[in-house]
Sequence to fold (610 residues):
Amino acid sequence: MSNGGIIGPVQNPIIQANSTVTSFTASGTFTARANQPSVVVAVVAGGGGGGAGDGSGGAAGAGGGGGAGGFRTCSSFSVSGGTSYPVTVGGGGAGGIYPSTQKGSSGTDSIFSTITSAGGGGAGAQDTGQQQGLNGGSGGGGGQTDAPGPFPNFGTGNTPPVSPPQGNPGGSGIDNPNFQAGGGGGASTAGTQATPSGGGPGGAGSSVTSLFGEAPQPFYGPTSGVYAGGGGGSGNGTAGTGGPGGGGNGSNSPTTGTAGTTNSGGGGGGSGGTGGAGASGIVIVSEPAFASAPGVWSLSEQYNYKKAGQWTPSAPFDVDFLVVAGGGGGSGGLGGGGGAGGYRTSFPGGTKLTLTGSTSFPITVGGGGTGGPADLNASGLGTSGSPSVFSTITSTGGGRGGALTLCSPSTGPNSDGAPGGSGGGGGMFNAPGSSTGGSGNTPPVSPSQGNNGGTGNRNPATNSTGGGGGGAGAVGGNASSPSPTTNAGSGGTGSPNSISGSAVTYAGGGGGASNAGSGGTGGAGGGGNGSGTTPPQSASSGGTNTGGGGGAGGDSTPASGSGGSGIVIIRAPGAAGLTAAPGTNTVTTLPAPAGGCKVATFTVSGTLTT
Fold:
């Protein structure tokens, strides 16, 4: 009996799964991809709320800091491919309310499969009967006491107990006449006991960078991969600071304590009034890369692999891209700021690139240009940035700033900014008139990859200023010329882009230099500041992996700022197979509402394999 057949050669399916990371900032469902054997997991619960005081600003009452949410990780958690796992992200507890002088509420649990992290304990408050911190993942700090002490009125951590521990206890408060409250416990250290001079700081949180990669990562947020810091306690003195990892600062005034940082699991800060709210938690799941070939496949399996793009050769697919070149270096000798690296993108709404499956694509990430020395001659010139390249897309390096040349000829091309993705700012001009900013969008592409640099001048004879480098979003600022103050031009602003899943601004121009006024401010998007005298300011370099231009230097200050290195980001459908080499480059999976898109981020030159 025939059951059908295949005409022509059959190529074996190579089931290649690249390392992907999914972060849950709200409850949802995680579905393991086919054949995935295990995952790496971090589960952080919601932080506890800070305790309340009596509204007198700590003079007669102080609330403790909220305990951090429980922090649990697993480096190899077994999963079944294709199986869905519910994910619960715990909420932060409310701060205690003034004038009720209540304890803070505890946070709620975060859960992934069989891993549960307990919510952080709410903090104790000022009133008798409300001073005891609550137990939790980490314990809440104790409120002020009204009896000789200190006595242990903190909440305990690691409740319920697990191994390794999910948190630590809070710190105790102390009594009249000092009226100080303890800090909330953190994932790494206990909350600090209050002292006669102030409230106790919150305990430190713990880092997940050893599991998911060094910061920055698009899924880490503002705490750079450190989570579950305790909230700081309030007091009649110095308020306790929140622990690293999102803990909120305490307040020694009637104002509300600082809330924990969203999705950090940090505890809320205690207050002399209303306590700060605890932070919501987070769940992060990494699917490590693997490759397998089952060996025997039915026709139905072959069809499903082909449909999923896992039967080699895989089908072409469209990708969005962001390609930012290295920024230009600022120039010395009262020079112009460096132009931003060229900025080219399809996201959002532009023309995508089509990639062929099972293919390697070289990626070039351009370096920033070198900043010039503090020299009033041609040697003060910086250098332009280097291009970044992905497939058919090339972004040009930012143009270096212009520099004064006192040697013959006294004016000319060294004073002008260089062209580039965005042009460098013009330097000091040793003659009546002004120097020219470099042209942006060179060579020309559509949409434009950058803008022109600003002009520099010398007016009066002893006052000299440089123009700002152009940015992706605006031209560089021109140097001003009123006497006796002469301000340098600011760098042009960059352009924001959320292709990575987070809004980041890239390709800001560098600021120009002045010897009789303010140095130019670097443009948003990594532009470096130019040197100035009013106020005193040294040149700074463009931001790493932003493509920002370097700030210009003066005639006797340290060297000008170098341009920032570029970056290349590719965003593909979730079904696409992507790997990025070398290991400093990453591939991550975005959570909803991005629809599970995969994002390859190249901070150094390497190879994208589909």
Remarks:
- The first strand starts at residue 15 and ends at 17.
- Residues 1-11, 407-411 have pLDDT under 50 and may be disordered.
- The first helix runs from residue 209 to 212.
